[in-house]
Amino acid sequence: MGRATWYDADGTKRGEWTEEEDQKLVAYIDEYGVGDWRFLPDKAGLRRCGKSCRLRWLNFLRPGIKKGKFTPQEEQIIINLHSAFGNRWALIAQQMPNRSDNDIKNHWNSCLKKRLKRNGIDPVTHQPVANNLAVETRWFNTEYSTSSSAIASPSSYSSSSRSAHLLNKIATGISSRQHCVDRIKNILSDLGTTNIHCQEEEGEELNKDHEKILASGFQEEDFLMWDEEELRRFMEEISVMEFGTTSYDCN
Predict the structure, then answer these.
(1) Cα three-residue angle 107-113-119, rounded to 5 degrees
(2) Is the pTM here over 0.70, yes or no?
(3) Which domains does the chain have, with CATH numbers?
(4) Phi, psi angles (nearest 5°) of residue 250
């Protein structure tokens, strides 16, 4: 069953060629030769586009065109030419004047490419698949090695150094904080044993200690923002004294 035919809006015919159309095309080219394909259809009395006429002539009507089954010799020629030119079918057809580029392309895609794959040959590179796998493996190893080197680059060391510097600063701050807590413990111990009659002297001493604490880096808000319950828990944790048992009565 042949292909259907139809007409474009401008009256150009598409689809299967008739025997009458073939005769008109052959007669015109025999008399005038192959010229500009854009103007040939009108001169030949055909309602076809120039591209359709060109393909019909080159693939089916030109003298010496060979149709039918490819011989083993032709198949080997196609394989050799494809390894050199790739999918440049018109260029391959120039080396095989009795075959059309369309027939060569169709035979490659439907038969030869699949045959090479079955035989372990890559139809793109025309190399054994095992060799391609080895090349890909070497490429992967090279890329992995490069990536590993990048991970161990000086910039990474610089980042590590910055992180270590930050950790050192945090550790220093924690050490300074612990020092301030020890100072507070000493001050609270003094508060528990100091007589209330010495309030004026005690006030002066506390002011001095308070200034020393602030000078050591302890923030005043850290202590003043505690309520009574937080201070009680702090006293219990450092095991210095029970906040509720301190007596402030004068003798």
Answers:
(1) 135
(2) no
(3) 7-61 (1.10.10.60), 72-129 (1.10.10.60), 167-245 (no CATH)
(4) -90, 145
